[in-house]
Amino acid sequence: MPDGETEILDFLLKLEYDDEKIQKADQACNMVAALLAEGYNENSIVKKYSGKIDFINPIIEFAKSRNSVSKKFSKHDKLWLDRYSASYSTPEDVGLYRSLKLAGRSIADLGSGAGMQSIFLSMNSDVTGIEIDKSRYIMSILNNMAYGTGCNFMNADATDVRNVLEKHDTVYSDPLRSRFSMERNIHDLEPSPFKIVSMYQGKVGNFVFDLPPMIRKDKLSEFTGELEYLSVDGKLSRLTMYISQGEQNMLSAVSLPSGNIFSSHSIESPGIAENPEKYIFIPDASLFYSELHGNYCNSIGIKLLQKEVRKVIYTGDSAIGGFMGEIFFVERKCPFSLLKEALIEMNAGRAIIRYETPDYYGTRNKLEKDLDGSTDVHIFRHDDTALLSVKVTSSPS
Description:
Elements (H helix, E strand, L loop, with lengths): L2 H13 L3 H20 L3 H8 L6 H13 L14 H6 L3 H10 L4 E5 L5 H6 L4 E6 L2 H14 L4 E4 L14 E4 L19 H8 L5 E6 L14 E7 L2 E10 L5 E7 L3 E5 L14 E5 L1 H6 L2 H8 L2 E5 L4 E5 L8 E11 L3 H7 L2 E6 L6 H9 L6 E8 L2 E7 L6
Parallel strand pairs: 1-2, 1-4, 2-3, 4-5, 6-8, 14-15
Antiparallel strand pairs: 5-7, 6-7, 8-9, 10-12, 10-13, 11-12, 13-16, 15-16
Helix pairs in contact: 1-8, 2-4
């Protein structure tokens, strides 16, 4: 174990069952987090507080994590997360959504890390988190204290069948993943879902796997169940695979915080638009990556205008209430040669490029030079025509 990890473990062992030491360390951690947020560098903090704060180096590491997850967890200033856990722990809004979806289960979380998903699941289910790493096991106990749930944790090998089979009907796993894998591959995960299913199939009825969202669907074809693509604030956040006995293949797209959900057992091709109409629609990332955008947009009567690398663009003649994605009103169309003049006439202050270009910032800087208006104009491209649009902030439900 590297020296830094040894020091973190020694620090956590001092806190494990001592409320007074936890409170003191918590105060020190938040003070250091505030200093880091104000711009103080780590060396100056070590120099000033070494000898005054026990385990100053671990305190700094946990303080950095608290700052990094301040928008991810409501109780961020009470949490103990190492760097990996801060990066990969399930965000609170996602954890609470999953907790409701799996409510009423008896769940074994294999490789529960710092405990965050187990904690949220336990708000609606009976949950045991099993974590082999001693440091993260202690973190999970401390984090559970912050949320005050009844989650149980074990410091044990999650692949030991005896730890799971006694009372659980569902196995949940968010496997460790490499930061350095060039292509997201299910076989790079530890433990691999293939290994877990082979160990527990026939013994446990339900499996839930949290997977890297960019894994291609064809890499998961050996499993039967629901693939759920989940976005947060319009950006793809999670890919979850739910496997149950007798379940058919299904794709789902979930958008948070709105809570919109769209599911289908098959993928439909979209209707094709010949020309842009009054409105531009960009379906949510969960619809794009699940490939359900055709199903969804066919159901609400809009057609595909064009497909790009990271998004699809649809068009229609009226705004649609509760649309799962973004809506833009096309105020003006013009040749690209007249784009700057059109932006000035529209009182543009910002020119937001929504089409693919090799020099995004260079192009945008040229367009925005000398603009002094107040309107954010979103620029789409169809063939050689610029579509100057404004975002529809709300539409009738």
